[in-house]
Design brief:
The protein contains four helices and seven strands; from the N terminus they run E-H-E-E-E-E-H-E-H-H-E. It has 127 residues and is an alpha+beta fold. 10% of the residues are buried. It is globular, with a radius of gyration of 17 Å.
Length: 127
């Protein structure tokens, strides 16, 4: 996904053929302790320029888990639900789940991919 900076009321000639900034939205949802309420955090990584490949995705996933582990020290398990893009299906991104356990002690229990016709999930509905 690209973040495209724009002006208010820009002309049509200014709108087309823009180059945007690559960004990655993650959503972390957890149940509050002793409660049935859910809390969510939404880390957003915006880059000036980067390759949108599995190496970048793995770095972002590990950064999100590192940040969450610092904020929630009792975090032991994580579940991924990812877009159906090719950078998530590579062996590099699958093996990163094992790296998360070794590096931080957070076990990635499950790695799901969203249905191609089902939308992007929670991060896709944020406005």
């Amino acid at each position: 996904m690209k973040y495209i900076p724009r002006k208010y009321r820009e002309a049509q000639s200014d709108w087309f053929a823009k180059r945007g900034l690559p960004w990655h939205i993650s959503v972390a949802i957890r149940r509050s302790e002793g409660s049935e309420h859910f809390e969510s955090q939404t880390p957003v990584h915006v880059f000036q320029s980067c390759a949108q490949d599995s190496v970048t995705v793995v770095s972002i996933m590990l950064d999100c888990l590192t940040t969450l582990k610092k904020e929630i020290p009792e975090l032991e398990m994580a579940y991924y639900k990812q877009d159906n893009a090719g950078c998530y299906h590579s062996g590099n991104s699958i093996i990163s789940a094992k790296l998360a356990v070794d590096a931080m002690g957070v076990a990635v229990v499950r790695n799901d991919f969203s249905d191609p016709q089902g939308g992007k999930g929670f991060e896709g509905v944020m406005k």
